[in-house]
Write a structure and sequence with these properties.
This protein is an alpha/beta fold. Helix content is 37%, strand content 18%. It contains 19 helices and 21 strands. Strands 1-2-3-4-5-6-7-8 form an 8-stranded parallel barrel, surrounded by 9 helices. It has a 5-stranded mixed beta barrel with strand order 16-19-17-18-20. Helix 5 links the parallel strand 3 and strand 4. Helix 2 packs across helix 4, helix 5 packs parallel to helix 6 and helix 7 packs across helix 8. It starts with 17 loop residues before the first helix and ends with a helix. The relative contact order is 0.08. Bound molecules: sulfopyruvate and magnesium ion. Magnesium ion binds next to helix 3. The site of sulfopyruvate (SPV) has 11 residues, from helix 3.
Length: 553
């Protein structure tokens, strides 16, 4: 495997290398089966099905590339495909090496490169370059035996791993030269060092194959490709001491059928409605290509400040102040410069490493149709408040959590600052709230009093704690404005969840808002830390706010 290849298969400790695994398949007294694949995805599917090896078919790889099985794809183009297949799987791959792409010298380089890319074995056939597929009914000139034996030796001398296998494919039956010629060639190839022989046939009855096997008498493992004599019961192959059976092209042919069906249906019906439920979901595509592993690797190698946090976005309200703009959608879905507000928020949260985002929906909930979010529904949004919405997502409040209103716009450095601030419960407050009020930049609602005011002093960074919050805080004592952004540690999240339960019990939950929750927490002796910011955020309540938001971006 190359150093920079992406291993998408979770690595389970394998006692044997891929070459070792393949040699075992070939030499085990139990007959083995390998299945055709022609790219990374099909190879992965072969492994998923339970096969212990992959046949990298020349016919199928060519067809998948849209070319003929006549060495039209160059050997390095095939090599690129093989590398994807190898990276996508943990089982060995036997490559259809056609005629070795030239003479002994080309064969040497081929085997070295296959070895380097994690391929376990190659099969070469005793025909002439450029080859013709064995089932095409034209004359199939055979290679000179000595020349072919030299190619086998060159291959064996070039392998980088002792267990790499070179299989010699005998085309004498295909060319109509008979079983005796096949045996003569088989013996020579065996002497030259081939690890097994593949005896090929294009007739519907297995008789000539079985005659060969009887005469061969297990001199070396025998491989077959029963594409044409497919009706033969598999037990008969066992009875003839065959080591390895190749199902040679059936994934490629099945894929053709599936692609034809779906293309024809979608073309004819001009809708996806009839097909969606008949095909794998994109989630399954993510799964088979190993997205889980990438997420784990990101957490390990790309640590972000928000990793380990989840987020709850309170987005149940209509936002009646925006009039007709919120007729068919809640205000978090209003477009601000080409994107709904909520999508910007979710992108910002994701960017900080917070992947698990739960949006509490209510009004026009069906309009909140972002992928990549979880949803919780407050179906009583019309007669309840934001705490009731938060309570709808209470089950996520058992780990570090960020809570945000769905109608605020803020800069990502504010999120970063908040995530850096220690404390079980931390709120963001705007120290410049008076500016906002004076310039009528929005309705200033909930003011706070901290135990210290915001300081511009470089040396002053003692933690500030919340003394009071709510819309009845006197303006001359206020030190900031509650922005709508709250960070909870695991302990803080559990404290909040407990308080929500208590509020539910005493009837104060339904109409409660976050400031009322914070007030209760302080009264209960919990410390709520305040992180000041200085402007540069917006809550969107009316058309004027919206115009500002468009300018802010
Ligand atoms: C292939 O799968 O490309 C083979 C097997 O070589 S066959 O097509 O049967 O010749
Ligand atoms: Mg082939």
């Amino acid at each position: 495997m190359t150093a920079n290849s992406i291993q998408i298969v979770e690595s389970t400790p394998q006692a044997l290398s891929k070459t070792g695994q393949f040699r075992q398949l070939l030499t085990d007294p139990e007959m083995a089966f390998i299945m055709e694949a022609h790219n990374g995805l099909s190879a992965r599917i072969v492994e998923e099905a339970g096969f212990k090896g992959v046949w990298a078919s020349g016919l199928s790889i060519s067809a998948a590339l849209g070319v003929r099985d006549n060495n039209e794809a160059s050997w390095t183009q095939v090599l690129e495909v093989l590398e994807f297949m190898s990276d996508a799987t943990s089982i060995p791959i036997l490559v259809d090496g056609d005629t070795g792409y030239g003479n002994f010298n080309n064969m040497r380089r081929l085997v070295t490169k296959l070895s380097q890319r994690g391929i376990a074995a190659v099969c070469i056939e005793d025909k002439l370059f450029p080859k013709t597929n064995s089932f095409i009914g034209q004359a199939q000139p055979l290679a000179d035996i000595d020349e072919f034996c030299g190619k086998i030796k060159a291959g064996k001398d070039s392998q980088l791993d002792d267990d790499f296998c070179v299989i010699a494919r005998i085309e004498a039956l295909i060319a109509g030269w008979g079983v005796d010629e096949a045996l003569r060639r088989g013996e020579a190839y065996h002497e030259a060092g081939a690890d097994a022989v593949l005896i090929h046939s294009k007739v519907a009855e297995p008789d000539e194959i079985f005659t060969f096997c009887k005469e061969w008498g297990n001199r070396s493992p025998v491989v077959i490709v029963p594409t044409m004599y497919y009706a033969t019961p598999t037990q008969q192959f066992r009875d003839h001491d065959i080591s390895l059976v190749i199902w040679a092209n059936h994934n490629m042919r099945a894929a053709m059928q599936a692609m034809r069906n779906i293309s024809e249906t979608i073309f004819r019906t001009e809708t996806l409605a009839d097909v969606e439920d008949t095909i794998p979901t994109v989630g399954e595509v993510f799964k088979i290509t190993g997205n889980d592993e990438l997420a784990a690797a990101e957490a390990r190698y790309l640590p972000k400040r928000g990793a380990g946090y989840n987020a709850v976005v309170l987005a149940a309200s209509r936002g009646a102040g925006l009039g007709p703009l919120t007729e068919d959608r809640p205000k978090c879905m209003i477009d601000v410069r080409g994107q709904p507000l909520l999508r910007r928020q979710v992108a910002m949260l994701n960017g900080a490493g917070i992947r698990d985002v739960t949006v509490v929906r209510g009004y026009r909930k069906e309009a909140i149709d972002l992928l990549s979010i979880n949803t919780a529904d407050n179906d009583r949004f019309a007669d309840t408040g934001e705490l009731y919405s938060l309570n709808c997502a209470r089950k996520v409040l058992n780990q570090p959590t960020l809570v945000t209103y769905g109608d605020i716009l803020f800069r990502d450095y504010m999120l970063d600052t908040l995530l850096r601030t220690d404390g079980d419960i931390v709120i963001v407050a705007d120290a410049l709230w008076q500016d906002r009020e004076q310039s009528a930049e929005g309705l200033v609602r909930d003011l706070i009093i901290g135990d210290a005011a915001f300081s511009t002093d470089y040396l002053e960074d003692s933690p500030v704690h919340l003394l009071e919050v709510g819309n009845d805080v006197a303006r001359d004592t206020a030190t900031g404005e509650w922005v709508g952004l709250l960070k909870l540690s695991e302990a803080g999240a559990k404290t909040v969840a407990g308080e929500l339960v208590a509020m539910e019990a005493d009837g104060s939950l339904e109409k409660g808002d976050v400031p009322s929750l914070l007030t209760r927490l302080i009264a209960g002796g919990h410390k709520v830390r305040v992180q000041y910011i200085t402007g540069q955020w917006l809550d969107i309540d009316d058309a004027l706010d919206l115009a500002r938001a468009r300018n802010l971006l």
